[in-house]
Amino acid sequence: MAESQGGDVSSGTRRKQGAASFAAVHKVFDANNVSKLLSNVSTNHHHEAVATISYEAQTRLSDQVYGYVSTILALQQQVAAKAEISMMKTELMKRGFTCENALQTTPQQQPQMLHQPNFNVAVQPVYSNNSYGCTNTS
Fold first, then answer.
1. CB neighbours of residue 34 within 10 Å
2. pLDDT by residue (tens digit) across 56-85?
3. How large is the average pLDDT for residues 118-130?
4. Statement: residue 24 has pLDDT above 60
5. Dist CA 6 CA 1 (whole Å)
6. Which of 29, 55, 93, 132 has the fewest C-beta atoms under 10 angstroms from its C-beta?
7. Does 94 score more than 80 pLDDT?
8. What's the rounded Cα separation, in Å, for the pair 3 and 17?
9. Which top-rank group of organisms is this from (predicted)?
10. In whole angstroms, what is the distance from residue 83 CA to residue 48 CA?
11. Is 56:68 a contact under the CB 8 Å cutoff?
């Protein structure tokens, strides 16, 4: 009899996950240390504390150097990327450019757009000591 709770996870699967989680916590933190730690946490926060300790133990086993910090760094990078995309969209909107504008350009407008780049780069010629291809034969 596979009993489901809030989805398609059977009780046997939950037991296996619980045993694996306990093994990870015991291996990383030792069960006695976790018991002492939980004694300092109010009872209504035990579930959150156990879930956090379990997650940290499992991530430390999978990445011994960074543990859960690698997950935090990945999430921070995603947030930074989304912020940059939002900033770029805002800048494009300030300039009056939208995706619809780009898609609605006529074939006659496209070559004009290609030939009118908006670069603010100063181009300096590069000269060598031998700029005319002459060599000193003396």
1. 19
2. 999 999 888 888 888 899 999 999 999 999
3. 45
4. yes
5. 16
6. 132
7. yes
8. 15
9. Eukaryota
10. 30
11. yes
- Give the contacts of 29 (CB within 8 A, at least 6 positions apart): 37, 53, 57
Rounded to whole angstroms, the maximal C-alpha distance in the chain is: 100
Residues present in the chain in total: 138
Alpha-carbon span 110 to 43, nearest angstrom: 66
